[in-house]
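Agenda item 2: glutamic acid complex prediction
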Amino acid sequence: MSVFEKARRIVIKVGSSSLTYDTGMVNIRQIEKLCKILSDIKNSGRQVILVTSGAIPVGASKLGLAAKPTTMPEKQAAAAAGQCELMYIYDKHFLEYHHKVAQILLTRDIIEKDELRTHAVNTFETLLKLGAIPIVNENDTIAVDEIRFGDNDTLSAIVASLTKADGLILLSDIDGLFEENPKDNPDAKIIPLVTEIDDHIRSIAGGAGSNRGTGGMATKIAAAEICFSCGCSMAIINSSRFETLYDILEGKQVGTLFERR
Ligand code: GLU
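Presented output:
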């Protein structure tokens, strides 16, 4: 059995570009599908934690700001406006399948401050015990540089480590990690399995992500390193078909699997 087939507790991270259109507005079809599939996965007996991006683009379009706000106060205002819209949508769709959700907003200081970390861990554990789906994002309103995760790839790996999850799945706008950038070489081959993060892997992961998200491949590799250090497996799969989540949980080969052996 593969790690993901056996996984009881999984963290799933979805990026802004998978949840929003170029306009910054919510991609309703995508979010509905995601909520349906995650509800089904939860019904099958697994614990699900969702790490979601999208607050900034959704809030920017809601407040009539530029698609990608540049100043910190505008980003924070956009996040505040977008976060409640996102949670409203998640709450509504998960409720259709009789699942309760809870919002957790984190900043990086939970890593260094034992007391904050303990509170966060207790909150996750209690919510999971009560059958809720914790939905996590960065607390962008108070996240100044010193306490920022900056990207949700890192945040999701920290969440996987805090909650001792068995697996982290990054839903991305790319199929996985490629030997070369597929934008430069359309014949570039995907790497199906990574068992060690070495300089070669780090070097092919350079480069930035899409217009709406903040992560690129480099932040995903950093996330894999955090996962490896806490015994969690990770996968990168394409979010264009959320059904692929079923494939990976059935042990099929999709995307890139990061598994320490
Ligand atoms: N916290 C940001 C947002 O909700 C996302 C950061 C990221 O995409 O990595 O918009």
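Discussion summary: Residues 208-213 have pLDDT under 50 and may be disordered.
Owner for follow-up: CH.
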